[in-house]
């Protein structure tokens, strides 16, 4: 059976070997000389061999002690490196965090808070994957990311959802479209007979009075860039949550849909019963505080 080597005993032996004196080693370690001598003697007993020559005024290593010296030094360096890294991880000063989110959150809500977090934690690496709410939930369920920021695509007893902001759905059309002149609100009946381009968020209308609009739609576009191009060309209108609407696009208009009022709930998704790394937990807590105002 291998002996259990105590780190403190190895350190004391290294000090004795370095200073060639038990007295100097004791002074360096802020211990008494008998305590240092006892620690080295117990280490020798565990190993079954003498590390230091007996007798004489000057400390000399035995051949066995000389052979063990670099081994013990390497072990202590390895121990200290691990202890230092574990401490930094525990303080979330270093680490890697992977998150998944929908594009609207990645572009509209994350940049400011994430820039601040990265500036405050320069040794934490953060990677972001974006996709549809369905894809985001899938990535989290499969354990490919630490946590997610999205709406809850489907109820899942394995996931926890903590809402942050409500994102109202509205009609997106060309700025010169008659619906854009309808004021600050639209009733679903005003959309009847108007060509509708469905997208990944159109399912939010399901179960509402406006669901019939989806049934008469003949065009589905999943990619946001392609959808915007279609709308700019006047192919039809679409519905989008406000955060997904490109504010910088002056060719399009966003008019809130008030009857029915449909909202997408954006929040934090985590896996039940699974702990986050200190860095991931720190980022999640930071974003929970700052994302509400960023939205």
What is the fold named in CATH at topology level of the largest domain? D-Maltodextrin-Binding Protein, domain 2
The DSSP helix count reads 10
Helix content: 40-55%
Strand residues, percent: 15-25%
Euclidean distance between termini CA atoms: 61 Å
Major sheet details: 8 strands, mixed
Shape: rod-shaped
Number of strands: 10
Count of domains: 3
Order of helices and strands: HHHHEHHEHEEEEHEHEEEH
Q: Superfamily at the CATH H level of the largest domain?
A: Periplasmic binding protein-like II
- CATH first level of the largest domain: Alpha Beta
Radius of gyration: 32 Å
The CATH architecture of the largest domain can be given as: 3-Layer(aba) Sandwich
Mean pLDDT: 91
Q: Give the helix/strand class.
A: alpha/beta
Residue windows where pLDDT falls under 50 for at least 5 positions:
none
Describe this structure in words.
- It is a single chain.
- The chain has helices at 7-19, 22-29, 33-47, 63-90, 103-108, 111-120, 133-141, 211-215, 224-232, 278-294; strands spanning 95-101, 124-130, 147-150, 159-174, 186-187, 197-198, 219-220, 238-241, 252-259, 263-271.
- The chain has 295 residues and is an alpha/beta fold.
- The protein starts with 6 loop residues before the first helix and ends with a helix.
- The strands form two sheets. Strands 1, 2, 3, 4, 5, 8, 9 and 10 form an eight-stranded mixed beta sheet that branches.
- The protein has three domains: 7-90, Orthogonal Bundle (Arc Repressor Mutant, subunit A); 95-165 and 265-294, D-Maltodextrin-Binding Protein, domain 2 (3-Layer(aba) Sandwich), CATH 3.40.190; 167-264, D-Maltodextrin-Binding Protein, domain 2, CATH 3.40.190.
- Helix 8 (211-215) links the parallel strand 6 (197-198) and strand 7.
- The longest helix has 28 residues, at 63-90.
- The radius of gyration is 32 Å and the shape is rod-shaped.
- The protein is built from ten helices and ten strands.
- Helix 6 packs antiparallel against helix 10 (278-294).
């Amino acid at each position: 059976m291998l002996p259990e080597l105590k780190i403190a005993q190895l350190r004391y032996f290294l000090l004795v070997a370095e200073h060639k004196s038990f007295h100097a080693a004791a002074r360096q370690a802020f211990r008494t000389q008998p305590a240092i001598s006892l620690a080295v003697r117990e280490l020798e007993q565990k190993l079954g061999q003498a590390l230091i020559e007996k007798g004489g005024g000057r400390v000399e290593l035995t051949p066995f002690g000389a052979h063990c010296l670099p081994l013990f030094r390497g072990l202590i360096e390895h121990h200290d490196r691990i202890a230092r890294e574990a401490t930094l991880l525990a303080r979330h000063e270093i680490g890697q965090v992977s998150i998944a989110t929908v594009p609207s959150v990645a572009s509209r809500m994350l940049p400011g808070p994430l820039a601040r977090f990265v500036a405050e934690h320069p040794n934490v690496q953060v990677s972001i994957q974006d996709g549809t709410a369905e894809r985001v939930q899938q990535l989290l369920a499969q354990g490919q990311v630490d946590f997610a920021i999205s709406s809850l695509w489907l109820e899942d007893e394995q996931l926890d959802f903590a809402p942050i902001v409500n994102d109202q759905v509205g009609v997106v059309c060309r700025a010169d479209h008659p619906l854009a002149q309808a004021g600050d609100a639209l009733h679903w009946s005003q959309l009847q007979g108007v060509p509708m381009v469905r997208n990944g968020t159109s399912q939010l209308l399901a179960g509402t009075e406006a669901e019939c609009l989806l049934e008469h739609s003949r065009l589905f576009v999943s990619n946001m860039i392609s959808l915007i191009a279609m709308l700019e060309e006047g192919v039809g209108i679409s519905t989008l949550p406000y955060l997904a609407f490109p504010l910088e696009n002056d060719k399009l208009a966003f008019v809130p849909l008030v009857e029915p009022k449909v909202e997408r709930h954006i929040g934090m998704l985590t896996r039940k019963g699974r702990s986050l790394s200190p860095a991931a937990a720190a980022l999640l807590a930071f974003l929970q505080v700052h994302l509400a105002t960023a939205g």
